[in-house]
Amino acid sequence: MTLLLLDSASLWYRAFYGLPQSMVSPTGQPVNAIRGYLDSVARMAVTYQPDRIVACLDGDWRPSWRTELIPEYKANRIEEESDDGLLSEAAEELEILEAQVPVIMEVLDAIGIPLIGIDDYEADDVIATLSVRETGPTFIVTGDRDLFQLVDDKRKVKVAYIAKGISQHELVDLKWIKNKYEIPGDRYALFATFRGDPSDGLPGARGIGPKGAATIANSFATIEEVISAATNLNPALSGSLQKKILESADYLRKAEIVVKCVEDLRLPKGPFNLPKKVPNTKALEVLAKSWGIESSVKRLLSALEI
């Protein structure tokens, strides 16, 4: 039974910035994120024909245990006031997006699609746990490269990568990762730990870029293996790489924990099967009409064959 795991924040963020705020409700409130999210899920449902769907949520997008290890983790995304004390344009846009999120969740709940988030963990961790716990085939819908680490051909776990948009999304398996980064497909997390990710406030190992990270990932499977190899002057590593690895050893041990998705959360049990009919028809009708999203709701219901 095919499972579709939605990285919800990734979906509604991209919908918000990909569609104009001129899309408004009958009362003039922006609904671009709502419509874009629902339409995106509909497109993915038509493409992958899931029997089960879970909308995965951030219980905390900067979990305390991750920021205790690396305080800079996603600190670059924290909204700041402008010099005159007013909210920046980015912060104002974020408020407009956040006002639409509860509506998205209400619509999903009314349709009967489960929403799962856990305090002090990110949606990535919820997705990781479900991808390991539930039987496949599993398709993870996200624009986040971090989730490439969950790809597993044996368990039929793939990532529907939407960075280029829903219509041009790429289906990521181990071969795709190998071809894209020239590394073993199952070592993406190791590669990413060394390379870093500025968008997440993770600098990576100082002086080691994608090329060096790929060299390391082609020879070793874990951070400790790499540090041990550098300590013992393993010829698989150049002298320059050995020096840089040892200088960043403390950071690398912390970053390995931060980068790796948690795969053993205590989550609600499935099976998360799609409902045969809408469990709360009245609530859904009221939401659709009051927000002017009837066409998107209808499209999603049709795609899910509900």
Provide a descriptive summary of the structure in words.
The chain is α/β, with parallel strands linked by helices and 306 residues long. The chain has 2 domains: 3-177 and 261-303, 3-Layer(aba) Sandwich (Rossmann fold); 185-259, DNA polymerase, domain 1. 46% of the residues lie in helices and 8% in strands. The protein is built from 13 helices and 6 strands. The chain has a 6-stranded mixed β-sheet, with helices on both faces. The model has no long low-confidence stretch (mean pLDDT 95).
Helix/strand layout:
Blueprint: E1 3-7, H1 8-18, H2 32-48, E2 52-56, H3 64-69, H4 89-111, E3 115-116, H5 123-133, E4 138-142, E5 157-161, E6 170-172, H6 174-181, H7 188-195, H8 210-217, H9 223-231, H10 239-247, H11 249-259, H12 281-291, H13 294-303
Parallel strand pairs: 1-2, 1-4, 2-3, 4-5
Antiparallel strand pairs: 5-6
Helix pairs in contact: 1-2, 2-4, 2-13, 4-12, 7-8, 7-11, 9-10, 12-13
What's the number of domains? 2
Distance between the termini: 17 Å
Q: What order do the strands of the largest sheet run in, or round the barrel if closed?
A: 3-2-1-4-5-6
User: Helical element count?
Assistant: 13
Main sheet summary: 6 strands, mixed
> Over the alpha carbons, how many angstroms does the gyration radius reach?
21 Å
**Overall number of strands:** 6
Class based on secondary structure composition and strand pairing:
alpha/beta
Q: Provide mean pLDDT, rounded.
A: 95
CATH class designation of the largest domain:
Alpha Beta
CATH architecture of the largest domain: 3-Layer(aba) Sandwich
H/E series: EHHEHHEHEEEHHHHHHHH
